[in-house]
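user:
I keep going back and forth on a fold encoding question. Separate attempts, laid side by side, tell us more than any discussion would. Would you put together a sequence-and-structure record for a protein of your own picking? Write it directly below this note and I will take it from there.

assistant:
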Amino acid sequence: MPNNYIESMNVNCHAIINNTIEIVKYRHWTHDFKQYEREIINADDMCETINKYFYFEKKPLSREEEQYPLAFGFVLYKDIAQVLLELSIFYHPQNAYCITIDGTAHKSFKRVMHALPKCFNNIAVFVGRRSQWGTYGILDNVFHCFKHLTLLRHDWKYYQYLSGSDLPLRTNLEMVRIMKALNGSINTDIEEYEMDRYRKMEVTK
């Protein structure tokens, strides 16, 4: 069983969904994740504090998942607690993860993100460009992680890009089986370029 604060909370989700009178009070429940952030930022041992509040799987959950590792790339810039919570939900030790931090992110956010590779040897972190929507900065930041993952000595099978607060809606095992069904093909769109985006582009020499 997970040995951390969040995972050990006894919340009856079925009762909440079905409007059980005794449990409705949980709908008004709030949680101070900012306190977690402050504790992590000021911790002497960030890894220990991160693992205190967020559960990260220690071993593959099945042989099938172990033999079919996935890769994930992120571009992030804020919300330490949200990032750690989301990452902990779909983190698995057999997968490969790469984070590019927006160059304009707060220094405390950068410091916590830079601590992650010390806690988990399958997470890489880099600082990139300013990630303004519709600009080259986003593309460059995405490519930076993708290039790192392609050069990595890690036999991952499929890559997924997640932006900001994106979260997979499938379990790791479900994603493995979906990727197997794709059989090496790519699921993407190709559309005509929106010319008005030129107005938002950064011009560099």
User: Anything to note?
Assistant: The domain at 52-182 is CATH 3.40.50 (Rossmann fold). The chain has eight helices and four strands. The beta strands are 70-76, 96-101, 123-127, 158-163.
